[in-house]
Automatic annotation (TrEMBL):
<dbReference type="GO" id="GO:0005737">
    <property type="term" value="C:cytoplasm"/>
</dbReference>
<dbReference type="GO" id="GO:0042277">
    <property type="term" value="F:peptide binding"/>
</dbReference>
<comment type="subunit">
    <text>Homodimer. Interacts with SLC6A19.</text>
</comment>
<keyword id="KW-0862">Zinc</keyword>
<feature type="domain" description="Aminopeptidase N-like N-terminal">
    <location>
        <begin position="69"/>
        <end position="265"/>
    </location>
</feature>
<feature type="transmembrane region" description="Helical">
    <location>
        <begin position="12"/>
        <end position="35"/>
    </location>
</feature>
<dbReference type="GO" id="GO:0001525">
    <property type="term" value="P:angiogenesis"/>
</dbReference>
<keyword id="KW-0812">Transmembrane</keyword>
<dbReference type="GO" id="GO:0005886">
    <property type="term" value="C:plasma membrane"/>
</dbReference>
<keyword id="KW-0325">Glycoprotein</keyword>
<dbReference type="InterPro" id="IPR050344">
    <property type="entry name" value="Peptidase_M1_aminopeptidases"/>
</dbReference>
<keyword id="KW-0765">Sulfation</keyword>
<feature type="region of interest" description="Disordered">
    <location>
        <begin position="41"/>
        <end position="61"/>
    </location>
</feature>
<dbReference type="InterPro" id="IPR042097">
    <property type="entry name" value="Aminopeptidase_N-like_N_sf"/>
</dbReference>
<dbReference type="Pfam" id="PF11838">
    <property type="entry name" value="ERAP1_C"/>
</dbReference>
<feature type="binding site">
    <location>
        <position position="372"/>
    </location>
    <ligand>
        <name>Zn(2+)</name>
    </ligand>
</feature>
<keyword id="KW-0735">Signal-anchor</keyword>
Length: 928
């Protein structure tokens, strides 16, 4: 059992530095805000750490007991940092403050449990509703519970109201969690700002609180900050004034009380940012606002907000919705109610510099976060095990928002590529997890952080083609507004609007409470259909059965037939039979979350159709056939050669979805074979297949309005260059050299990433150093990201090693970009072993410095081990786990398990398929 401590270890040094300043400031603050502590003097926590735990121990499941419910907080925070430094400035990242929480006691108790992490609690007081002090003893628990416990001398009585007051000190770090510090450059000079990221469990790092999503309350926030800065929070500013504290003048910003909300949705920023003025404000670095980089996001966010108000039938609940672009941010964005925080790449757009994919990313992220203002903020999941209620809804609805804001894009057609196919890869592993886990399985902050994965975000059940999924949003939102819901609450509202013969909960639990998904096997000769749990690497030991909606089409017929498969099977149905040379295609337009396998005769007919006239098969299903075939082959349902045969027709294909599906799957072959003799024939085959596509898109100018065509031009150039089509490589190097020799960059924004990468790969130190200088000088984050990726493409080992060392230096590579930069280097076959050795040697430091908040290190483990396919590499993985201990990987634990599972499967797959694949590629390139 953990021992209690009173001062956070992480803050010990900083507390010594700021104690004198902090104590005097706190006393002044108390006077300024009329907190009458003189009537009931607060109790100072004991200075000696207890040697024995409290008698009954903490709650057994690391959850708050629930016998106390917060109703309102008054929070005062004072930040001391300077946004600009002079020669005489003594910079400090300390903050202090006080918090008063008004709570109700539901059950008689002699203990108060709240959360506090990395804070030094200097004073505390418990009073009843009459103002009488309830004496007690405070303990802070230095374990994963982060509990603040007060043992009281007399019991709190049921149905009575109480007040808990604390003063505290803390420090802002650059860990991108809680209240943190961010450093950036403006007009060539260093600047600082403070920002927050509370999700999932870091509000407790800012002030003591009941830090669970169901513990909703009203928050009255006041921030004291330097006079040359602006403070923002969830609500509008109610009043601001200048006051004197310790002979210095400070600006005090007091905000209106918030609506009832969860702690993880609180947000604070203190900066000298400017705003793009409108009904709702968009904030960013002054340099970015002056350059109009915020205008596009501002316009689209207003359009999307208005659309959602109409779609949901509920007006936006707050009086303002600000957005702010932060130089340092761990996630893509965060849906804080009334103050959405973004990475700069997700909010800032510069015409002529940012690409179409940058623009799509901005609108998609905005649509996702604005959707959360209803789904997640107005109605919140009760506990993190149902996180998908927030994220799944927002992902699904964001496509509606993007389609409204940019109707010409046809974004709905890309759902399968962006969401379905990627999440099916993860969900086909034995180490996957159900969409909705049990509460008992999600306890620690690491457990919670692990849930922020593609399963939660992209396994969107609303892609299933049941009509009852399109229900009345207003009923659900109205029933639980300003409150919390669990998945059963959603089913009850769905049940209200569908045929009573369909039991929604029975249908949906097969998709939410079971991991994975089925493969549907159809025999078009007999009409038999059956379902099995699809796993890539092993036979399923689970007795799963899904209720599967299936739509089929047959050649020569324009009619779609529908079925709901509720049994494992096999069952025989006429609709699954095909006669003569007729082919059958199931899961039309990929509206269902499953894979499809056929009898060999039907596969052969489908392949012939692709070769003769591929347009007779819907474009989304052309991509599905390729994706299903490759994954079925890896799971040994069909031969690998059949999967490879699905790519032969691509020499005549110009659509993006089939090409992207093929490239995503052939990428696995590259990872498995780019260190072997298979790679030469494979590159020759890819040159042959992409040649017509490259010629189709050969002009290096972009006059296409269709977003899919723009993306496919990028594919054409990337595949042609990376597979040594000389014309492509020469053009890429020529365009890059022209930029090096001239001040202006004439490379089209859409083509920058691939041109930069291929030119740097073909070049040497001169090209790399030029790109690095351009990276350091770039003023818009999207351009920095393109260059940061391209710098990983060099084939010089010593340069890659130097680049890896830069990832540990935040002045060169920001912390938020370190993981992705290491993964970029690992994707380069030259950098694979370098990146793996680097991660192993630096793991203790990386996990400590870069593993906070929702910045999961799971993606790092996944990225640097993606190419592993040898027994030696598997042994290294196991040794890596042994060296650090199985329990030391935190939020990366599941990723490490998946990496070992994947490596074992890769070893077996390569052993079984290498010769077959080599012969197939040689055969297909014999006459070249």
């Amino acid at each position: 059992m953990s021992k209690g401590v009173y001062v956070s270890k992480a803050l010990a040094v900083s507390i010594i530095v700021v104690t004198v300043l902090a104590v005097s400031s706190i006393i002044t603050m108390l006077v300024v805000y009329n907190i009458q502590i003189e009537k009931n003097p607060p109790q100072r926590p004991p200075t000696n750490s207890p040697t024995t735990p409290f008698p009954t121990g903490p709650p057994p499941n690391l959850r708050l007991p629930g016998d106390l419910v917060p109703e309102k907080y008054n929070v005062y925070l004072q930040t001391y940092f300077y946004t600009r430094l002079s020669n005489v400035t003594n910079q400090t990242f300390a903050f202090n403050g006080n918090a008063t929480v008004y709570f109700k006691c539901l059950k008689t108790t002699k203990k108060i449990f709240m959360h506090s992490k990395d804070l030094n609690i200097t004073l505390f007081r418990v009073t009843d509703e009459n103002g009488d002090v309830v004496a007690g003893r405070l303990t802070l628990w230095d374990d994963e519970s982060n509990f603040l416990e007060v043992e009281l001398e007399s019991a709190l009585k049921a149905n009575k109201n109480y007040i808990f007051f604390t003063t505290f000190e803390g420090e802002m770090f650059d860990d991108l969690a809680g209240l943190y510090i961010s450093k950036y450059t403006e007009n060539g000079e260093d600047r600082y700002l403070a920002a927050s990221q509370m999700q999932p469990t870091d509000a407790r790092k800012v002030f003591p609180c009941f830090d669970e999503p169901a513990m909703k309350a009203i928050f009255d926030i006041t921030i004291i900050h330097r006079r040359d800065t602006t403070a923002l929070s969830n609500a509008k500013t109610k009043e601001s004034w200048v006051t004197t504290i310790d002979d210095e003048q400070w600006l005090v910003t007091h905000f209106y009380p918030t609506r009832k909300m969860s702690t993880y949705l609180l947000a604070f920023t203190v900066s000298e940012f400017k705003e793009e003025k409108s009904d709702n404000l968009t904030w960013a670095r002054p340099e970015a606002v002056d350059a109009n980089h915020t205008k596009y996001a501002q316009e689209k966010s207003i359009e999307i907000l208005m659309f959602y108000e109409e779609e949901f039938g509920i007006p936006y609940p707050l009086s303002k919705l600000d957005q702010i672009a932060l130089p340092d941010f761990s996630a893509g964005a965060m849906e804080n109610w009334g103050l959405i925080t973004y990475r700069e790449t997700a909010l800032l757009y510069e015409e002529g510099v940012s690409s179409t994919s940058n623009k799509e990313w901005i609108v998609t992220v905005i649509a996702h976060e604005v959707a959360h203002q209803w789904f997640g903020n107005l109605v919140t999941m009760k506990w993190w095990n149902d996180l998908w209620l927030n994220e799944g809804f927002a992902t699904y609805i964001s496509y509606k928002g993007v389609n409204k804001a940019e109707a010409s894009w046809g974004i709905n057609d890309l759902f399968v590529l962006h969401e379905t196919q990627p999440v099916m890869q993860v969900d086909s592993l034995a180490s996957s997890h159900p969409l909705s886990s049990g509460e008992k399985d999600v306890q620690t902050p690491s457990d919670i952080t692990e849930l922020f994965d593609s399963i939660t975000y992209s396994k969107v059940l609303f892609s299933l083609s049941w009509s009852f999924m399109f229900f009345n949003y207003k009923s659900y939102l109205k029933a639980y507004e300003y409150s919390n819901a669990e998945y059963k609450d959603l089913w009850s509202h769905l049940q209200m609007v569908i045929n009573s013969e369909i039991r929604v909960e029975e249908v949906m639990k097969t998709w939410t409470q079971q991991m994975g998904y089925p493969v549907i096997t159809i025999n078009t000769t007999s009409g038999e259909v059956l379902q099995q749990h699809f796993l890539l690497n092993q036979t399923s030991h689970y007795n799963f059965t899904w209720q599967v909606p299936i739509k089929v089409m047959k050649s020569g017929s324009s009619t779609l037939e529908a079925d709901l498969l509720t049994r494992k099977g096999p069952v025989q149905k006429v609709m699954y039979q095909a006669s003569g040379n007729q082919w059958l295609l199931a899961n039309v337009n990929c509206t269902g979350y499953f894979r499809v396998n056929y009898n060999p005769q039907n596969w052969e007919r489908l392949l012939k159709q692709l070769e003769s006239n591929h347009k007779n098969i819907p474009v989304i299903n052309r991509g599905q056939l390729i994706d299903d075939a490759f994954n079925l082959a890896r799971a040994k349902y069909i031969n690998t050669t059949l999967a490879l045969n699905t790519t032969k027709y691509l020499r005549n294909e110009t659509e993006y979805i089939p090409w992207e599906s093929a490239l995503e799957n052939l990428d696995y072959f590259i990872l498995m074979f780019d260190r072997s003799e298979v790679y030469g024939p494979m590159k020759a085959y890819m040159r042959k297949q992409v040649y017509n596509l490259y010629k189709y898109f050969e002009p290096y100018t972009m006059n296409m309005t269709c977003i899919s065509n723009q993306y496919n031009q990028i594919n054409a150039i990337s595949v042609a260059c990376s597979n040594d089509l000389e014309d492509c490589k020469e053009t890429a190097s020529k365009l890059f050299r022209e930029w090096m020799n001239n001040a202006s960059n004439k490379i089209h924004p859409n083509l920058k990433s691939t041109i930069y990468c291929n030119a740097i790969a073909a070049g040497g130190e001169e090209e790399w150093d030029f790109a690095w200088q351009m990276y350091m000088n770039a003023t818009i984050a999207s351009e920095k990201d393109k260059l940061r990726y391209a710098l990983s493409c060099t084939e010089n080992v010593w340069i890659l090693n130097r680049y890896l060392s830069y990832t540990l230096d935040p002045s060169k590579i920001r912390k938020m970009d370190s993981v992705s930069t290491i993964n970029y280097i690992a994707r380069n076959v030259v950098g694979q072993s370098l990146a793996w050795d680097f991660v192993r040697s630096q793991w203790s430091y990386i996990s400590q410095e870069y593993g906070g908040g929702i910045m999961s290190l799971g993606s790092l483990i996944d990225g640097v081990t993606e190419r592993f396919s040898t027994v030696f590499e598997l042994q290294q993985l196991r040794q890596f786990q042994k060296d650090h201990g199985e329990g030391s990987f935190g939020s990366a634990t599941r990723a490490l398990q998946q990496a070992m599972e994947r490596t074992e499967a890769n070893i077996k797959w390569v052993q079984e398929n290498k010769q077959t694949v080599l012969e197939w590629f040689r055969r297909e390139t014999t006459n070249l």
